[in-house]
Amino acid sequence: MTCQPQHLTLESRLVQTGVGRDERTGGISFPIYPSATYRHPGVGESTGYDYTRSGNPTRQLLEETLAELEGGARGLAFASGMAALTTLFLHFAAGDHLVVSEDLYGGTYRILDQVFGKLGLSASYVNTADTAAVAAAIRPQSKALLVETPGNPLLGVADLAALGALCREHGLLFIVDNTFLTPVLQRPFEFGADVTVYSATKYFGGHNDLCAGALVARTADLGERLYFLQNSTGGILPPQDCWLLLRSLKTLSLRLERHCANALSVARWLKTRQKVTAVYYPGLEEHPGHELSKRQTAGFGGMLSFRVNTPETARQVLKRLRLVSFAESLGGVESLMTLPAVQTHADIPEAERLRLGICDRLLRLSVGIESACDIIADLEQALT
Ligand SMILES: Cc1ncc(COP(=O)(O)O)c(C=O)c1O
Fold first, then answer.
1. Which CATH number is 166's domain given?
2. What is the pTM assigned to this prediction?
């Protein structure tokens, strides 16, 4: 191991989040500032904080931490991932067109289709693991490319460097929903992304006890524009939840190490099961995005999906689980399994879902940080 004391590693910076930042007390943990408003020293004077929607010390520390973690100019914290996405989509105008991953969170599809679609924003859904298909979907009205990689729930891997070059060539804003990997494992700005989006409810929060979202802008100009939208629309994360998220970030690196190791063990084991007909995990050598993932990520993440032989087997597995919970969401320390066709992706029209392969035999597993042996033992009894 080579140590460079002048440069703290990401792991150390995460652990040290907020340490000593409360200069008055020197607190190791930064305080929660619940005040909704602040005294003005005089007319036209400010302490730097006027009203909590516009700025709050606890949220500010979180937002600065997110920006630093990502290597961007500005971080913004929201009440949910959807609040972050809503604010981001408000950056666009009627008549604008977005190119979007087809293998993406169903709620993102729903808001584009049923909310922003009505306001005149259109979207084309493409396989973003196929750069040529992305290029073919670009229109004169296209303003942005929104990519989830690995995809959700089928874990397809998009080539971030190639897509970054395509966005530059066509003047598109390059947006990466980096929820599945976080900046610890994947650093979209290094590939030309302009904004990253997070459901911080997932790995950032990490304990299934918090709903939060985040945007990080690479440049100060874009950050300022997104801050204007955050302050205007008000979907901010409350200070208590900002504090909880700050605490969670300290262990992000450590948690992800275990999520990745466990997911690989579980994926390899699932491949050996008779009732399992396919396993989708970029860490498996035979995954089509395996080599690309090795090049552009520092780990394959904790998410995997698998297909079983019949819809009845899928339902039986969900009913029999004991340690793993049959529950929506992902990225927490506790393992969770879902049936995307009826849960996270229910709002995608059935024909489209089936074309993508999101059928009632597909199960998605968010591999937690319990012992891999215990997770496998639970899956074994559920699959028998
Ligand atoms: C990849 C991804 N992006 C965004 C969201 C929305 O985030 P939230 O549920 O925190 O609103 C989710 C939620 O599952 C997600 O999985």
1. 3.40.640.10
2. 0.97
